Amino acid sequence: MDSNIEQPEKPVISKGIDGFFKDIYNIFLFLIRIFKEAFKGPVEVREVIRQCYQVGYKSLALITMTGFITGLVFTKQSRPSLSEFGATSWLPSLISIAVIRALAPLVTALITAGKVGSGIGAELASMRVTEQIDAMEVSAINPFKFLVVTRVMATTISIPILVAYTGLVGMLGSFLDIHLNEQTSFTSFFQEAFKNIYFLDFITTGIKAVVFGFTIGVVSCYQGYNASQGTQGVGKAANTSVVVSMFLIFLEEVFIVQIANSIR
Amino acid sequence: MNEKVIDIHNLYKSFGSNHVLRGIDIDVHKGENVVVLGRSGTGKSVLIKIIAGLLQPDSGTVNVLGQEVDKLDSVALRELRLKVGFCFQHGALYDSMTVGENLAFPLKRNTPNIKHEQVKRMVSVVLEAVGLAKTIDQMPSELSGGQRKRIGIARTLILRPDIMLYDEPTAGLDPITCTEINNLINEVQRRFHTSSIIITHDLACAKQTGDKIVVMKEGKFVKQGNFEEVFSTQDDLIKEFYDYNFIQ
Ligand SMILES: Nc1ncnc2c1ncn2[C@@H]1O[C@H](COP(=O)(O)OP(=O)(O)OP(=O)(O)O)[C@@H](O)[C@H]1O
Ligand SMILES: [Mg+2]
């Protein structure tokens, strides 16, 4: 059944280790259920769009600012070392490699994990605690499909779009600084910038973005949907969503970069 | 009053070592209001959550409208849930939606091709029935506790259930609002021809709404009958309850 029932049993190894394995098992079941329900019956298109809008709306301002400043500051910090070799003309391609390969997906994922992940965790947890999820269930509505599947779809769709946006804004920040210092024109900046970017870079960044989006959605929905009773369950769900998402994002980053480099 | 709509036999439920229900038997006949009285933590909410299929029983039979709730697959369970309304202790209104959207939501989800005008008409009928027509555009956070419970009842009524399950409909409300809610429960019974289980620890509520009263203690029913039968006894347990309610 859907109500989370905690049954105190005798631990097999120790309480902590048992709990850890039980968590992994439960997350596995949760994942299977997401795929099963996503492909069963019609997609909740309107709700997915609404959630996508929420993801974008919540994080756009922060992402714009962070992306722009990251590009700008990164350029400023790199200039002295490059100018020692008289190689400031390499700045655009250096920055584009850094932004597109690494910074854009990572910065976007970490910010959305903080803003959106905690939001989803807290929202679903408070719906669980105030019995709104049970209320859906008893009025013959499938809360899992309506709440969880739509949110996971929304983060998986909209975070890649945000990553592309962060990349663009970061490059603009960098362009501003380079334009002011080296008087490079807009077109020659972007020509330089994309000289050393390959198709594989876009693919890897795209895959990362999708994986990060999916991770944030699944982790925060899992934490919220299975929140324990009481108001502190809400805070805990929000908090754990962020911590676990960020941890997994770093792991996935390392993993995907390893694979990409072995192909290159 | 002959057909049984709910028939529970020898029901057990525990959470780990916490044995909450220990052999419950109850029947509800068509058109009847059954009140379950009991102190906090005796498992009243667990009982009706089992009836609504939110929790699984450990053993015993739970028969609702001729079907064994715990043995239904998800499709059949959903069908049955359309006929069983559940009013939560704190209303459980969807707090991201207005009152009107709260009421329309279950209707739209369960009848995908329903016309907009029809939804509007049915929403206003149930809002009228609970006497809160003017709150239609308010958010749940702007309502009082009593209003929230009434909207919760309206949201349940909109699916036209045969059975209503009320979880502490009057808890935490002032006596006048309690009476209003009790009258509402009786009116729902008359107007929508529902059979109900009303969970409460409030004797006034039990007296005003109950055709039959059962008293629950430590996961068992210790007494049942109509109000006079249950409370004419010298049984310590019942008297304790009575005193406690009047001291309050
Ligand atoms: N999902 C659950 N998991 C574990 N234990 C539970 C769960 N639901 C209820 N319990 C336990 O069952 C017991 C009875 O709970 P229940 O909510 O039915 O009480 P109640 O009679 O409705 O009390 P109240 O009048 O306070 O609402 C409590 O001891 C509670 O801890
Ligand atoms: Mg209760």
From TrEMBL, chain A:
Domain of life: Bacteria
GO MF terms held by the record: phospholipid transporter activity
UniProt GO cellular component terms: ATP-binding cassette (ABC) transporter complex
Signal sequence region: none
PANTHER family recorded: ABC TRANSPORTER PERMEASE PROTEIN-RELATED (PTHR30188), PROTEIN TRIGALACTOSYLDIACYLGLYCEROL 1, CHLOROPLASTIC (PTHR30188:SF4)
Keywords in alphabetical order: Membrane, Transmembrane, Transmembrane helix
Iron is among the record's keywords: no
Keyword Transmembrane: yes
Xref: InterPro entries: Permease_MalE
Record protein name field: Phospholipid/cholesterol/gamma-HCH transport system permease protein
Membrane-spanning residues: 55-75, 87-111, 152-176, 197-225, 237-260
TrEMBL record, chain B:
Domain of life: Bacteria
Residue ranges occupied by any ABC transporter domain in the UniProt entry: 6-243
Keyword Ribonucleoprotein (UniProt): no
PROSITE patterns: ABC_TRANSPORTER_1, ABC_TRANSPORTER_2
Gene Ontology molecular function: any one: ATP hydrolysis activity
Keyword tags: ATP-binding, Nucleotide-binding, Transport
InterPro entries tied to this protein: AAA+_ATPase (IPR003593), ABC_transporter-like_ATP-bd (IPR003439), ABC_transporter-like_CS (IPR017871), P-loop_NTPase (IPR027417)
Keyword ATP-binding in annotation: yes
Any one Pfam family match given in the protein's UniProt record, by short name: ABC_tran
Designated name of the protein: Phospholipid/cholesterol/gamma-HCH transport system ATP-binding protein
